[in-house]
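Read as amino acids, tokens; as here:

___
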Amino acid sequence: MPPGARSASLTGHNHCAGVLVDTQGLLLHALVHSADIQDRDGGVLVMATLFGLHPFLLKLYADGGYQGPIFQSAVCKILRQIDVEIVKRSDKANGFAVLPKRWIVERTIAWLNRCRRLAKDWECLNRKALAFLRLASIRLMLRKLCQKTA
């Protein structure tokens, strides 16, 4: 399952979360860091903390914020087997346009933002913000597992 990566900005106490999700939009990995770290560098941090957790990852979809040789070379050094594909917005698109693969991560961020605790960033510590992000993700996974199929 190829994942998508995207950094989601949390507001309030200068936190930012980098999230890695699978093709169904379920959280694989997350890292909360200070907001003064650029998305591209935060993405490198997320990938660096993945070491050995998901050896099956082969493809990574990322948005234009992760474009450039810095992110590409850092990911190649950390996880050699991963192929990075940047999902770019079309020049022909007028207004809002759904981008393939990128909407999966955006949908996950929207699902997580429905959680009251994440909608406003009340946490002073990065580890607490990460804990509540993981709890919200567990809640999403449980709801998906418990859905009755018709």
User: Anything to note?
Assistant: Confidence is low (pLDDT under 50) at residues 1-12.
